[in-house]
Each structure stands twice: as structure tokens, then as C-alpha cells.
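Figure 3 (text version): C-alpha cells given as input.
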């Protein structure tokens, strides 16, 4: 399997997951034009995608899904709550495939397990995507650490996990009070410390790579997020596990396993 972050952050999120000759996107939160350009950087024609999995209805995850679906005849996969949340924004789409949160389904060669995450949209999920024994877990928007999340993310080779903010930078930063409360709330986004707690619980001998995601440009710094995660992953790093950060403005790195 292979995963490539096309973008991650509050201005747009999208991940390309590939394996056994098929490719899917998890979220498409940039314009279709930008997603197409970023896919081009890794040599993928959007028309060759099997479809787009949608985690939740926030604009930074769905901005490009309508146009991509229409233009390249791509099926969309999401739950009913997310569809109800976004149907007015996305317009006509090529085809809609509804899944039930918690129920595993097949998308091309991928086995997909959508799991519930605590976040302030209609029906937010993370995804565990596997092919035989290989698998990746993706949880980019969640406000707190739940036992479901730490259970589902165990035993994987690759984990993509949000490390959104540094609590002090958020507190002292420019966001209005209400927005600060939202971000730090149980249904907002994970702080670097929260991310560290999850990483400590899910680290195993199988784990090869951790990709930090949705790092705030305003309320965090890449090196703070990396430093915090590193301190929770000492044994993992000692045996040469890979810790990287997905960026807002750059594609990559591609992780293959
Ligand atoms: Zn969100
Ligand atoms: Zn988001």
C-alpha cells in the first residue's frame, strides 16, 4: 500500500491511498483544480481514481468533491449524516454510495472501516483502510481521545493522526474567544499533547510510520508537533520508525509499505 498526503490543514485536506493497482482519495478539501494539479505531481490522473471517501462535511474536506465527482465520474462514499450536511453545497454528483459508520465495506481492493470520531460536524468518521494484512488508519479531525479511536488505530503499519494545536499558542493566539473554545473543546481538534496520548496507546511492533496531520498554521508549529509526537514515540523512533508531517502547501511524502 501507499499513502500520499496531497494537503492537510484548516485550508484543505486530501490523502491519496493506493494499493494493488487502485487509488482512492480520502477527502477532497481543496478546489478540484488544485487536487488535480497535486495528483499530477505524483503522476495520477483523477479519472483513474476509484472514488472519494468523505470523512465529514466541513468545507476543508469536501470543497472539491462535487466538481471532481462530476468531471471525472467518480463515486463518492460517505454516511447519510454527511450527505445531508453537504448535499446543498456540492450540487449534482456522479454517484453516491452510503456507508454505515462502524460497518466495514469494500471499495475496489480496499477494505474500509469507517469509525466514529468526536468532532463538531453531523456524522464525522475516521477510516481504517486495509488490504490483506496491510493497513492505514486516518483520523484528521477529532476533539478528544476515545477508546474507540485508540482501539481501531491499533495493529496498523501506518497511522495518519491530527496534531492540531499547541494549547499555549492557541490561548495566546489571534482567534476570537468562541473559536478558541471550539478548537480546544471535546468536539474540536486534538492538541499536540492529546495526539501524544493516542500515539502512546497505539504504538506497536507493527507500526512503521506516523504522519501528523491538520497542523494549524496559526496555533502550532511543525517542530512543536514533531517534538511532542517524538517524545511519545521514543521506542518507535529508536527502531527507526518514520515520523513525518503532512503539510498544507506541499504534496508528500509518499509512505509505502
Ligand atoms: Zn472538521
Ligand atoms: Zn478539518
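Below: residues designed for each position.
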Amino acid at each position: 500500500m501507499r499513502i500520499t498526503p496531497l494537503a492537510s490543514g484548516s485550508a484543505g485536506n486530501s490523502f491519496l491511498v493506493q494499493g494493488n493497482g487502485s487509488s482512492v482519495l480520502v477527502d477532497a478539501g481543496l478546489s478540484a483544480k488544485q487536487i488535480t494539479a497535486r495528483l499530477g505531481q505524483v503522476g495520477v490522473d483523477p479519472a483513474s481514481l476509484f472514488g472519494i471517501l468523505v470523512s465529514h462535511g466541513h468545507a476543508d474536506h469536501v470543497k472539491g468533491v462535487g466538481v471532481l465527482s462530476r468531471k471525472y465520474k467518480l463515486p463518492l462514499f460517505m454516511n447519510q449524516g454527511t450527505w445531508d450536511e453537504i448535499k446543498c453545497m456540492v450540487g449534482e454528483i456522479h454517484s453516491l454510495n452510503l456507508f454505515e459508520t462502524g460497518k466495514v465495506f469494500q471499495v475496489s481492493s480496499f477494505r474500509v472501516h469507517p469509525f466514529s470520531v468526536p468532532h463538531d460536524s453531523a456524522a464525522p468518521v475516521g477510516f481504517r483502510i486495509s488490504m490483506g494484512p496491510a493497513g492505514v488508519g486516518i483520523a484528521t479531525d477529532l476533539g478528544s481521545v476515545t477508546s474507540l479511536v485508540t482501539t481501531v488505530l491499533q495493529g496498523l503499519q501506518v497511522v495518519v493522526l491530527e496534531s492540531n494545536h499547541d494549547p499555549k499558542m492557541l490561548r495566546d493566539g489571534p482567534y476570537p474567544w468562541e473559536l478558541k473554545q471550539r478548537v480546544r473543546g471535546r468536539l474540536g481538534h486534538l492538541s499536540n499533547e492529546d495526539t501524544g496520548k493516542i500515539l502512546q496507546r497505539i504504538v506497536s511492533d507493527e507500526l512503521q510510520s506516523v504522519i501528523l496531520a491538520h497542523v494549524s498554521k496559526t496555533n502550532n508549529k511543525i517542530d512543536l508537533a514533531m517534538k511532542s509526537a517524538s517524545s511519545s514515540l521514543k521506542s518507535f523512533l529508536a527502531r527507526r520508525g518514520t515520523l513525518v508531517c503532512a503539510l498544507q502547501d506541499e504534496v508528500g511524502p509518499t509512505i509505502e509499505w
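The mean pLDDT is 97.
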